Amino acid sequence: MTQPVSFAQAATESTPQQSTPAPTPKPLPPVEATPAPGVQPPDAPIPARPAYLPAPAQKPHTQPTEAAPVPIDPQTPPAVAAAPTLQRPVVARNAYDGTQIVTKDQLGSAYIPVDSWMYPALLRLYSMGYLNTAYISMRPWTRRSTLHMLEQTESDVRSDGNVEAIELLNKLEEALESEPDSGGTQKRGLLYGIESVYAGMRQVSGPTLRDSWHVGQTFINDYGRPYSNGFNTYDGFSALAEKGPFSLYVRAEYQHAPSYNGYTFSQARALSELDQIPYDGFNRPQDTTPEGVLPSQNNFRILEANLSAHVYGHEISFGKTDAWLGPGQGGAMAWSNNAENMYTFRINRVEPLHIPYVSYVLGDIRYDFFIGSLKGHTYPNSPWAHSEIIAGKLFNTLDVSLQRTIVFGGKDHEPVTLHTFLKGFFDINDTTAEEKYSRNDPGARFSSVTFSWRVPYTAKLLTLYADSTTHDDVFPLSAPRRAGWRPGIYLSRLPYAPKLDLRVEGVYTDYVTSRSIAGQGNYYETIQRQAYTNKGFLMGDWIGREGKGGNATVTYHLSGNEWISVGYLRKKNAKDFIQYGSTQDDFRVDLTKRIRPNVELTAWYQHEIWRAPFFTTTNPAGPLNRGTNTNDTGSFQVKWYPRLHSSNDLN
Question: Whole-structure pTM over 0.85, yes or no?
């Protein structure tokens, strides 16, 4: 950062010496004068001013009328106050050379949770044609990798004069103001403190859905939090510490949910037998088929907790971290925050990697790998899962990623060893029945392909994207009729309404081939029969097994971090999977508002209509009309973002 200098110093350094000395003004008696508003003394520091604002026009130096004039150096230009602006004054960040970021910036950094307000803002900025170093299908992003994206794109945003984009950039930079510029002279020292404190309540009236593995769930992408009819509360905090290449992040909360009625014994047994799991002994009860009256929940749960080290563009971490591996905002086929995070060992290339010759074709690449143990399984118990994804960029407008998840191991099936891990990691061949039931089983293999394309010649308005998943095929593109798909379209600004955006996504896993029968297509596997769940909730897309539907949202942006949105979600399960099928319709209104710069208020209301004749028969008029239920939910949360502290007072 440039140190402020006085005008006198600037004149001394920039003005050549004159051969003839300037005339000396007549001395005046000393006067205690009060400067007029907007006027600064000659040796005052230059006020910080955004780089993108025009320099203020020079004005003649004036003195207050009550005081005698003060002598000034005739070669010194007069001080002028910075021009006022309606935007928040933000000091422009130093741009960086992306090819040098790995060698110049070795600072560790905490991940930004995937439910943060920052991601909708970042995705909108990306779809406006900026943020070219963002990889949409690989979230979460660390604080510093996000900062680098903003630094790389800032000059384009400022020079284009896009008011909406500038507002987004200002709010995002403000949220990361405690991080020093890349390659600058400032040193971060120890950055630490409480990142956020929040208290939220959720009042639900009416019966809810809590079975994402079969019928559906009333609240999606919610970290597998407990919920039920009545008063629910979620109160928590997050804290971080960053020092050199190391970072520590913890997010925990108290969760309360009333008791609720699950399936009857006969219903739970029917669903378990549908999954080909005998419903007796250690297989009863199951997290995937909640049975009977379940007690109220009063939990203190760690949502995220990880210790990480930054090593040449990688974050190597242990602990609980988020994962959202898809370009959509309503869901992600491969991995989402629909279920509780598992504890993992993770190696994440958080900065783009330039590979000579290869990057000329595929662009710079990123990759991510993590492995951990799944909970809530009974058939077999305690399996492990690992995920690997690689993503590249073509022409700065097209993001493409390839991903694979493998669930392996488990009690009484095969041990979790280096051999079983490597077998699944490298094996892409079909598996025989004999091998499948042996210790050489490569595991349940699920693959995903995604793309996100910012369509040229659309005035930086339109982004098309798609997510996909398949089971036991190398990739969905190799067998598209046996794959699940989530296509989407995003308009970052509507014509003649620059503050409005529109997002529409469709999704289905009920594909047309015979392999999609009785729920045994996507997210299911012969050995790992509860494969794609953690503690009873789906880890992937909320659409689940043999489902079809979608979601749509219209959002009005009050500012870069405030908005009002109206959304609709629909899901239908196939009748050959759930008897009589099931239908779920959700209507929702969201508000995110800042009551103070560091205090965020979020409120939303949801009305849900769901029909699952298999589950309940509140209306005995007939099999096609039975089981119609409704619930209404009001939610309110206040979140405070305290200022982080630095050991060298950089903040």
Answer: no
